[in-house]
Design a protein that fits this description.
This protein is mostly helical and about 500 residues long. The chain is about 75% helix and about 0% strand.
Length: about 500
């Protein structure tokens, strides 16, 4: 008889999730301050989305690769730990360099490196919970991650404000110079990022691949096996799909070029995505025709098309959820500064007051997520995972929409409470649902593929929202948040159609 996976105590789960707080320090500093850095170095907010796009494209490539290799890694550091350790080292270095960027192109490059490194750390952490915990404890594990995300983000998002108001560090500087409050915040964030990940690496030991296989077989024996899909996509399907997507992408690019005055150059990003996906399928088809499929690229492409049904349904929920958050991260600083504080000049006192207040608002939603991470299991027990997610996403969607209705920026705190509940739910509930549907031997690659539906909406947000803000909303970025709110409400409704083998 196969041995069942042991349950872990509270402090063991605490230690294995503690590193995620460090990751969130980097992520929160990036989201709250990068647009501010870009504008300080001369970027026009109308082109802000383009500057953000290189980072998610890199993440789109890196996440399945890291997941694939972490599934197949086993050395003295373990299975997942090597990746989030080396990712933390690289991200910490980028955090130290970013606020000292002498030019806009350097800052954009640092964002690219920082986001890629954060993805190297973050993706294995998601699979780490699935590796280390039995199914009944996985919701607790992901809730613990959400708790640490909230704690880390509260402090990180508030750091520039705290530097100014507690330590009298200047939050303004000459035109083209990044304020000292931002610089010191990034230094602190880089240090904390690395130390937190080091703690998890030191305090948590991983199970070997043989032990994990035994645990999974024990679950199968008692009827709790995951959804295993072994379908192999045919050569013809790859070639037909590739030709179709490439043709659509090319046609869209031609339409954009012919109507560039009425449309927006940011839409080229969407066309490029379609072309790239088409070419990837064509390459996979050619490899398949030559029977050369024993490689990481072919395996990832086949796994993409062989996703379990629950994962396909959750992917759409993730897409619309994260589209809303990327709308916030890209446009909230400029939106609040212009709509609520009356300034679009990054060197003005009013703009920087607005930017600092956005940092506080970020702290509010992240702080709320700490409370929500504790409350969500209670809501789940009263309803179920899917309905709990619907409630939380509904609160978030209404919170985003309220930005256009509230004139006094102080009251935006209430809006961010709703966003905080949505954030906690997005970081825990989908993964709790998904982990029960995935085979343990492919947990890393499928978590990486699942993150496609976090990155793809970011790329589309960069293209579509850039067009909407400049051409439809008369260069008023506050409306991007309203669009994000509508997207989140759609995500909530789509949660109800998700079917999972076991709902805890």
């Amino acid at each position: 008889m196969n041995k069942s996976q042991p349950t872990l105590n509270f402090w063991q789960i605490w230690n294995m999730c503690f590193g995620f707080m460090g990751i969130q320090f980097g992520f929160a500093l990036q989201n709250a301050n990068v647009s501010r850095i870009f504008e300080t170095l001369g970027a026009d907010y109308n082109n802000m989305a383009v500057l953000w796009v290189a980072a998610p494209i890199t993440g789109l490539i890196i996440q399945p690769i890291i997941g694939y290799f972490s599934d197949k890694t086993w050395n003295r550091l373990g299975r997942r730990r090597p990746y989030f350790l080396f990712g933390a080292i690289a991200a910490s270095l980028a955090l130290f360099i970013m606020p000292n960027s002498p030019a806009l192109w350097v800052a954009a490059g640092m964002l690219w490196i920082m986001d890629a490194s954060i993805n190297v750390s973050m993706e294995p952490f998601r699979a780490f919970v699935g590796d280390m915990l039995p199914k009944k404890q996985r919701p607790l594990g992901y809730a613990m991650q959400s708790f640490f995300i909230g704690v880390g983000a509260v402090v990180a998002s508030s750091l520039p404000w705290m530097m100014t108001n507690w330590f009298d560090v200047a939050n303004t500087a000459e035109a083209g110079i990044i304020p000292e409050s931002v610089k010191y915040s990034f230094y602190a964030g880089g240090t904390i990022f690395l130390l937190c990940v080091l703690w998890t690496v030191y305090s948590t030991k991983e199970y070997s691949p043989e032990e994990l296989a035994e645990f999974e077989q024990a679950e199968i024996d008692i009827g709790l096996g995951s959804q295993i899909v072994n379908n192999i996509r045919t050569t013809a399907s790859y070639l037909k799909g590739g030709a179709l997507f490439a043709a659509i992408g090319l046609a869209l690019a031609i339409v954009i070029a012919a109507n560039i005055e009425r449309l927006d150059k940011n839409l080229y990003i969407a066309a490029g995505m379609l072309l790239a996906f088409g070419f990837c399928q064509l390459i996979a088809g050619m490899l398949s025709s030559k029977k050369s499929t024993n490689n990481g690229f072919s395996e990832v492409m086949n796994d993409l098309f062989a996703m379990p049904v629950a994962m396909r349904q959750l992917a759409l929920v993730q897409f619309f959820s994260w589209f809303a958050f990327f709308a916030m991260w890209i446009y909230m600083t400029s939106g609040v500064a212009s709509f609520h504080f009356g300034s679009k000049d990054p060197s003005s006192v009013a703009y920087n007051e607005g930017a600092d207040w956005v940092g506080v608002l970020y702290a509010v939603y992240n702080g709320t997520s700490i409370f929500a991470a504790i409350l969500i299991p209670v809501i789940v027990k009263m309803t179920n995972l899917r309905f709990a997610h619907l409630i939380n996403l509904g609160l978030g969607g209404l919170g985003f929409i309220s930005f256009i209705l509230i004139k006094d920026p102080k009251w935006l705190v209430l809006s961010m409470v709703g966003v905080g509940f949505a954030w906690a739910s997005v970081l825990s509930v989908p993964y709790a649902l998904l982990s029960n549907a995935l085979p343990i031997k492919k947990l890393g690659v499928y978590m990486g593929i699942f993150n496609f539906f976090i990155v793809i909406p970011q790329i589309l947000a960069a293209s579509i929202l850039g067009f909407l803000v400049t051409k439809v909303f008369d260069s008023e970025p506050i409306y991007a948040l309203v669009v994000g709110g509508g997207s989140m409400l759609i995500a909530g409704l789509m949660t109800l159609r998700v079917k999972v083998p076991t709902e805890l």
